[in-house]
Design a protein that fits this description.
By secondary structure, this protein is mainly β. It has 7 helices and 51 strands. Strand 36 (about 635-645) and strand 37 form a beta hairpin. The chain is globular, with a radius of gyration of 33 Å. The two termini are about 35 Å apart.
Amino acid sequence: MHDRVEGSPSHRSPVSSRLRPAPAVRLLGTLAVLLAAGVVAGMGCGQEPPPPAVAAPPLGAQANDDACACSGGFYYNGEAIPIEDTRCDSFVCGRDLIAYHCVDLGANDNWRSFPGNRCGDLSCPGAGTYCGADVVNGEPAALYQCAGAGQIPLEWTICEGGCRRGACTDAATSECPCEVPPVAGGEHIPRTCGQRVCFPTGAGSDGVKRVCTADGWQSLGLSCTQRAGTCNACRGVQDSFGNEVTTTACGETICGLGLGNRSEWICGEEGWLDLNRPCEPGKPEEDAEFGRCPEQFQDKDGKWKSVERGQTFCGDQVFRSPWNNDLARSFGEPLIKIKGKATQLFACPGPGARPVPYRDCSALGGSGECKPVRELPAMHYHEVTGAQPQDGARTIRDWDRCDEACPTVTDAVYTRVGPDGNRFCRHLFCGQHGITGRVGTLYQCDYDDWANCPPPAESTRAVVGRPVPYEECSVACMPLDTKIRNDVCDATAEQEPFGIPDPAPEPSPSSRCDAILDYQGNEVPPSSRRRGASVCGRGGQVFECRDRQLYRPDGWHATGISCGTACGICGPDPYGTQSSFCSSITEFFGNTCSDITSDPTAILCNNSDKVLLNDPAYCGHNPGLHAAGDPWMLYTCKAYCEREDGATTRWVPCEGREGDGQNGRERTRVYRFDHATYCPMGCTVNERVNDACVAPTGNLQFPFPDHKMIQNIGHKPDWNEGRHLGEDIGKASGRTEGTYVFPIAPGKLLRAGINCSQYLGIALVEHRFKENGEEKRFCSFYGHLDVDELAMTLVGQDIGTDTPLGKIAYWDDIPRQHNLYCDTKWTECPAKDSFPCDPGNSHLHYTVLSHAECARFDDGGGAPPGYDACNTASAVGYLDTETRIESYTALDGTCTIPISSPDGYISPEWFVTSRLH
């Protein structure tokens, strides 16, 4: 069994903060010279711009259980947020005019960005505290801190029970202060929240409908004889799940507008009215810990798709994908998981939010189970009625929902006439209105309660007594009175016949940084904007891509460390910060850029007849470049050849040996500048081969610290016919799955991909060592890696010991990932007919290969086997870390004929420890 890692408690003692240690940085040669000369007095992250005149909102004294230490924050006006004033679950408007949430993460509280939640369109009515109903585009149940009329609120909090008269109210109590209504017998009418009464107007009219609310009797905007009306003031607000409510129907009720789905609101003449009564299922369990909401989910087609706002999920689920793993990492948690009971349905306000209990499936009839959407049958437009889906028809979007019985509709008989003249009974429900389902999807219920109303004979997909997707609304689903007619899609919507395409998944806000210009003014490509990357940015300093913060909402963090370039623009970065290095350089020497080095396209590529490579690379100080460039840059040129295209002549990249002037071929190629790469460790000039950036350096190490041996090399287990060709290791303490795997030494990543065996995700790294003056080549191989986390974008690049190759896969998730990428299909766990399911078996298989053995696999051909065929006893005992062999030659079934190079498989444990000491 693997250890369970639970989240941090939500209530704590006074604020405490633990700062993460900063990574060590290497000072480059140019900076060292300047420091020695006394040019640079000090280095740091630069100074923030001075705060404007707008004052921070008064926060007042903070309760101990409301304290969160969210550091490094800046309001949209550039003013720093004092860490001692930050509060758990508060929101602020950041420097890029989007909302940031102060998240309770135990000892490492942090600001979490919401790129889709913009705050630049909020507008205060004056100075002070205001409920969202009084703030332009505000959330009615939020309390906003305003500095002045027309200004954007700096901070706000969502009230649990609602907001009235500029203050948060307590949680819903079902008590409303309504006076005796002025009608005959009014003293006998119960004055409870939600009670509707027809009030006289005194003008001889039919009277108006009023409802008892937390603020007393309020008008619904309807006459006493009206069944429905339009209340425009209610359009556009959000419910407690984060969904925009687009209805304008007077009298329409929704759950929430506060935290936890705890209060019911009704649409009235002047907007949303607080009924101050809890809505189902009531208050969540005391101090319940329900995990985190995912950013992506796996749909019924097996693809990962973006989570919609308010989407529902069954409890006890783990969500693994690059986006979800990035999200988990930003919270300091191993995985994104919705906890709670598997029969409980939860609603998600947004990615990373705490799930909200929505329905208990065991109380809704049916089987009582909660069904994940991937297990529900795919349905197309009106397919439930027997209509055959046309070409190109899209699957109707669905959510996790309860396997529930259709609601009873015995008050009326809903009959329809089918194409064959037969009558059948049905009713249509909007999702989460009468049934559990997706908001915006219309579901059909077929009934067999009446003998004269059987389900349609022509239907082959109808499920009697269970809701089935019927139609997807393009704008909104309108829940109407179930005693009169069916729910329908919004009449103003232009419904597409085959549904709406799923939104394309977007990268996690924390997985990549925004576009940024390098020090030469060129935009950094997306491949170099992944988290952990470093670039030489504006201001001549190193920028690292990390999690987004209020002071760097683009994700780039200015380190204040000089890039060491001979040519830095040395201007301020996008947020007005200039490194102290650049300030000193500019002050003493001015801008050191020349026309050539500031414009890499002016580099003169070497067109000598001796240059034969199609893509030669040159360091900026290589004499063969003909025009000196930046010595910390690697300039890549490209060979171009003429091609005839009809009457047009085009210059295109040369192929193979085209135009190289060798073996009788005419030399026609011309070399032109293609791109430049910044070399953080410097650039090395190679005389006969391409120049290259200096590879990262580092000592030998194990793939992760605190490991334990599970199976040695050469071991013959009882459950396999051969001997083990590597070593299996796991974490000595804590969870093994999700653990980052690092190469045992610096080198080049030869391969990272998918192997359709139990290995699944694999990586192969080349290492070169000088031993006794002779250079030797080895490779290290890693298997059982999570496919979603592989470093595929780094293949062919030099990597250091701090570059993660991926994460160890959760063992029982291997069949599912295998089925996504491989032709053969395995039964997913917990079944064991085609895969040995065992959640506690998560581990890393790795081995070191000799040069000859590595050559068999470095060209993409397969992967080193996990076992050979030698079925004899082994001197290496199971879990015996004392009895160890240094290397092994794989053998065939006779145990005499080698099937690998001699000593081709080397013990990683021995390889690392023998060279460390």
